[in-house]
Amino acid sequence: xxxxxxxxxxxxxxxxxxxxxxxxxxxxxxxxxxxxxxxxxxxxxxxxxxxxxxxxxxxxxxxxxxxxxxxxxxxxxxxxxxxxxxxxxxxxxxxxxxxxxxxxxxxxxxxxxxxxxxxxxxxxxxxxxxxxxxxxxxxxxxxxxxxxxxxxxxxxxxxxxxxxxxxxxxxxxxxxxxxxxxxxxxxxxxxxxxxxxxxxxxxxxxxxxxxxxxxxxxxxxxxxxxxxxxxxxxxxxxxxxxxxxxxxxxxxxxxxxxxxxxxxxxxxxxxxxxxxxxxxxxxxxxxxxxxxxxxxxxxxxxxxxxxxxxxxxxxxxxxxxxx
Length: 323
Hints:
By secondary structure, the chain is an alpha/beta fold. It has two domains: 19-219 and 256-322, Rossmann fold, CATH 3.40.50.720; 225-253, no CATH class. The chain is built from twelve helices and ten strands. It has an eight-stranded mixed sheet, sandwiched between helices. The protein has a two-stranded antiparallel ribbon with strand order 5-6. Helix 4 packs parallel to helix 5 and helix 7 (183-205) crosses helix 12 (306-322). The relative contact order is 0.17.
């Protein structure tokens, strides 16, 4: 196992910093940014902070009418385009249209995702969470490489999660063809895949100026929880039986504005110049987990292992080629 050097920098920001605080004083005028899932939850706050700093942001959305309505009052610097991550032809159409504009792509934020949903398949029998959260974003990113290279210093951000601590990739059966489906295991696998994808992409593209990072945004109540019942959230400790949020959870969980901060920090911080492939949390590089790490912090060894990253890239590349 070859692990990357997960050493915190000592950022001046913290777990409860907001995206707007991270970007305060930073001028992103002239920067072209794509944010998937940028019209709800932390994606919305990511977009709002970026356009507030002067960036031109494109939001590809499966439901462009809903996205346009959600973003209407923010800025005229936002473009909404149609794209469905679960449909490779849709991803290809979006990426081709972007490349044909001739614009460089300075930052790509792979923010969209689904969590703990009932079993379903997309593509050539791909498990939906792995297919949407990982394969769809890999297809998008690789299709956009010409525009990312054109930017001469682009960054790609993959939204991972502390859920990566649930499991490594199920290398022999990633689509649950021979294994009973378990929605949290499937989600954990997808989030590990997001981190490994950023590591493999960074290794491949750093020579062309592209650096990639994965981020854990923190615990946040967003539409991502839409597949969970109140009973499940009580069992997880996220809610009390009466529907209120426990005091300890209130202290630990972030607002959506705070949840977007690590994303924009990883996308813009000059302290990350010359670095890449790293897993970040709380506006800093996360440390490697030890036996003393709590389940919601730090990065597990299997998610920052360059050999696994290469294995996942090769496996995923074949899946996408077949698709």
